[in-house]
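Researcher: I'd like a structural prediction for the single chain below. Treat it as a standalone chain; there are no partners to consider.
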Amino acid sequence: QVKLVESGGGLVEPGGSLRLSCAASGFRLDGYAIGWFRQVPGKPRERVSCVSSMGSSTFYANSVKGRFTISRDRAKNSVYLQMNSLKPEDTAVYYCAADRTVGICSSDPKAMDYWGEGTLVNVSS
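Model: Treating it as a single chain, here is the predicted structure.
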């Protein structure tokens, strides 16, 4: 069964850090660009970061540039999102998604091939 599972979300104070993990089962992530998206109620799902299938290219939304870092571990068939200097506006459900494409994943959520169930990040004092 093809599955993406996110973990690592939680409650953190402003200025704190979290590391999200996205683990795949039932398929290899090697041939996929992997993106992290986030969504708050009433707003569309937005692309936060992406790493290309070969790991040679990355994308960051302007709102997280310099604070978030995406990485992938082929041996563990996983992708990570290190989030530092968190702000209340980072509060959202974070999803990882796999896009079978060369290069950076699409910004269109409908273009993704697989999705995880999401993990909640709550930045609050």
